[in-house]
Amino acid sequence: MHEMAIAEGILDIALDYGKRNDAKRIAEIGLLIGDMSGVVVDSLVFSFGMLAKGTIADGAKLAIEHVPLRGRCTKCGREFPISHYDFWCPACGDGVLETISGREMQVKYLEVD
């Protein structure tokens, strides 16, 4: 279950930021999670809640923004959403593309008191 390790990383980032800024409480953590990141959101939220108990992040809300999978064709340059892992360009039919979003897994913001 890699969500526990991810939750631990998020908590480390939040607690470090809180310490450096003399925060009394971490109220919310904004996350960007891409469709192709492989993160099971319910497991991440559960894991984070367990790890945060007894810290200044205890009870913090995880505000998760889902980032859709998008690609750019390397042949014609068209950008397009990728659904059902269909990586063929809808404009020219080429199958070589650059992934431009959908793999994100990052802390976007923290709300602290």
CATH topology label: hypothetical protein PF0899 fold
Coarse morphology: elongated
Return Rg in Å.
18 Å
- Tally of separate helices: 2
Count of discrete structural domains: 1
Low-confidence stretches: none
Widest sheet: strand order? 2-1-6
The total count of strands amounts to: 6
What kind of assembly state do the chains in view correspond to? single chain
Mean pLDDT equals: 95
Strand content: 25-35%
Name of the CATH class: Alpha Beta
Report the biggest beta sheet as strand number plus sense, adding barrel if it closes: 3 strands, mixed
Note the gap between the termini. 31 Å
Helix content: 25-40%
**What pattern of helices and strands is seen along the backbone?**
HEHEEEEE
Helix and strand content put the structural class at alpha+beta
Describe the protein.
The longest helix has 19 residues, at 2-20. The chain has one domain (2-69, 101-112): hypothetical protein PF0899 fold (2-Layer Sandwich). Helix content is 27%, strand content 32%. α1 (2-20) crosses α2. A three-stranded mixed β-sheet has the order 2-1-6, with helices on one face. A three-stranded antiparallel β-sheet has the order 4-3-5, with no helix packed on it. A hairpin with a 5-residue loop joins β3 and β4 (79-81). The chain is an alpha+beta fold and 113 residues long. The protein is elongated. The protein has two helices and six strands; from the N terminus they run αβαβββββ.
